[in-house]
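Question (not urgent): is this output format expected?
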Amino acid sequence: RQHMASASSNPAFSNSPAFSLNATKAAQLARPSATEDMTAEQLAELYNQPAGTSHADRMTYENTIQKIAVCFAVLMVGTVVGWMIPALTIPAAIVGFVLALVNIFKKTPSPALITAYAVAEGVFLGGLSAILDSVYPGIAMQALIATVVTAGVTLALFSSGKVRVTPKATKIFLVAIVGYAAFSRVNIVLTATGVVQGFGGLRDFEIFGIPLGIPLGILVVLLAAYSLVMDFEQVK
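Got this back:
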C-alpha cells in the first residue's frame, strides 16, 4: 500500500487526514511495544475502533464515489458555461490553480472550496475546448468522449474487481508516462521551430499507413485509465 501511495501523484490523497487516520491506526497495531502489555480484550477493542473520531466522520468507499459523481456533474455544468463564454478561460484557469493549491495544502477538507474548484476547472475546460474546436473542428467532441468513456469504464471495471493495481503494472505505467512526456516535449520543440510541419508534428508520421497519433492516443487513454485505478485503489 505504501508503494501504491507513493506511486500516485495525487497530492490531495497524500495530504488528506482521512487517509492518515487509517495509517495511524495501522501503526499502533504494528508496534509491538504498544500492544505487548495489553490483554486480549484490550487488543480487540483497539482493533475494532473506527478510523475516524466518530461514526459520522468515517470515510466510506461508496460515499467517496458519490461525491466524485457530484463534483463531476458540477464540473460538467461549468464546462457548458465555459463553452458558451470562452472569454472566461484564462480567469477560470487562474482561479482553478489558486483553489487547487488551497485544497491541497488545507489541513481540513472544505466541501465548498472543492465544489468551487470543480466549477472553475469546468469553466476552464469548456472555454479551452471551444477555442481549440474553433481551430480544429471536432477535436472537443473527441476529447469529451474519450474522457467520459475512460472514467466510466475504469470505474465500472474497478468496482467489479476485474482491475487492480500491481507493483509490476505500476512500474510499467511510470516508465510509459515518463517516455510519453519526453516525446511530447521533443515534439513541441520540433513543431515550434519548424523542423517538423503539420498539426500533430511527429504524430502525423505514418507507420504502415497509420498516423503515429492513433496508437499514441490509445496509449494516453490507457495511461489515464491506470492513473484513475491507482486513485480508486488508494480511496478504497
